[in-house]
Amino acid sequence: MIDAHSCGSRAKTDRIDAELISRFMAFRPDAGRTLPAQKLRILRALTSKRAQLVETRKRLAAQVKAQQKQGMHAPLEELDEALHSLLDSQIAELESRIEHLIAADDTLARTVQILRLIPGIGPVASTMLIAEMPELEQISGEKAAALTGLAPIAHDSGTLRGKRAIGGGRRSLCHVMFQAALVASYHNPVLKAFADRLRKAGKPHKVIETAVARKLVTIANALCR
């Protein structure tokens, strides 16, 4: 089935709606994304599992904090510490496997090296960009931002008519880029100046964070190209 997502568009306008409806009746042999190379599929599996374990560790920390407030942590402390240690060990193992996989491939290693030149892009963000966006360097900056879920989407029809907001995209990558944006907005000279201008203009924190994250993706795509 043809929809806005398969065409690489998240925007919703009357013109786009009409175009998608007309395409619906036509066969599109090029629909969908091509399957990434095996090494990229392995890298994606490793980074996805790491993200899952990191999220589990965060939830465990929140549960421990809640138990402490309720005075119920002592009976479970030993179990929680054992689980936390296990998660730390598994995350470290995955990070080691990711590092070795990248080091064993000259192309991946070179791409990571380029991405790490950007202040704010660390080991996690660089590997996530490669794993979750194999189109990197082959598309425009605007397209890269859209695929990450950081591009403003126009809604000229439907219930959100007249509004623009980000949405969709590859959520795990979007989450990581938001974290990278927090670092970049204070430690990347160019993006810090950009963020400061937005702060002075009275923009909300979420808007600033989104704008910086979008610029990070655009810069990363441009450097890789």
From TrEMBL:
Domain Transposase IS116/IS110/IS902 C-terminal: 113-194
Entry protein name: IS110 family transposase
Domain Transposase IS110-like N-terminal: 9-67
Source taxon at top rank: Bacteria
Residue ranges of coiled coil: 43-70
The keyword Cell membrane is assigned to this record: no
Swiss-Prot/TrEMBL keywords: Coiled coil
A UniProt-annotated Pfam family: Transposase_20
GO molecular function, one term: transposase activity
Organism whose genome encodes this protein: Parasphingorhabdus halotolerans
GO biological process per UniProt: DNA transposition
InterPro entries found in the cross-reference section: Transp_IS110-like_N, Transpos_IS110, Transposase_20
